Amino acid sequence: MPNEKLLMTPGPTMIPVRVLETMRRQIIHHRTADFIAGFDELCENLKAVFCTKSTVMTLMSSGTGAMEASVANMFSPGDKVLAVSVGAFGDRYAEIASKYGLDVQKISVPWGGVADPEQIRAALESSEGRDIKGVLVTHNETSTGVTNDIRAIASVTRGTDTLLLVDAISSMGAIELRMDDWGVDVVVTGSQKALMNAPGLAFAAVSEKGWAAYEKARLPKFYWDFKKYRDGIAKLSENPPYTPAISLVLAQNEALKMLMEEGLENVYARHRKFALAAQAGVDALGLSLLPSREHSSNVITAVLPPDGVAIGDVIKDMNVSYDVMVVGGQKSLKGKLLRIGHCGHFSRFDLLRAFAALELSLAKAGYKGAEPGASLAAIQRSC
What we know:
By secondary structure, the protein is of the alpha/beta class. It has 14 helices and 15 strands.
């Protein structure tokens, strides 16, 4: 039998046995008391993870579906928005807005850098930016391994008429994001990363300011209409508005119960600890990060490959020879980056296995920049 792959990727991530066991149960109907009870518990647990009192809506889609829904529900044709991109997924948010006919102003940060809140403030206060209706930004950019300071960015839009829409697809449940306290207006995420579930669900929450904007928004929407989801959750006999992915919904509730049992602060600390351990492993191999350490992500470590090593071959060998899956760079960073995920359900032993495979595969590729076991010793010292 083939061995089980260890997914050390930015998503999907490994799924806990408790969640897998929930997912494998026989299907139940979505208009039954059993499903409604599980769905309502999920809704409450999502509020806790989002750090919000607002309704958190469950969509049957990938995270990109929730990104698109956030645009469709908040704006009208021709509205001006500011898209702040630090990588591939920031570019995606901008592209979605453009497809919907919005006037997209863009701040593009060199890949490996992060958004500057003061640059955003200056853009909004300029003569061209005073009618900007929303700012679109990624919290954690997995394509480059950086995390934006959403709290600081929210301080720019809070108390203004400008909405702040945040893609938290890879950060929710791993990196602190306090929607209500920070004044974020729309937050979206997906099931298959730090939320420890299979792909197929997306989630979105909207502030009171965001719901006021919804009432004025005129972009077309049917399946993506947030009001249908909010109203369905409010009426037990009607939630959700369309046939849900029943098994995924119940599995997601089980995963969130695990997060609640661990405690969100402990979850954040665990991701931070293992991110620092991964960075220590990179240092021990004599390699460098793409971003600065200050802004390096807690859920993915983006590593520049050594000179003369075909990193694509290393990634393939880790998968084929050692059953460890990591990923390379995207778009302009294709063939120029190694990305190691440490997100959701994983342990120090998973990190050690990933770096053991990395060391072995680098050695096969001819890399002689570190002694065998150097990264493993560094990780053990760190965590």
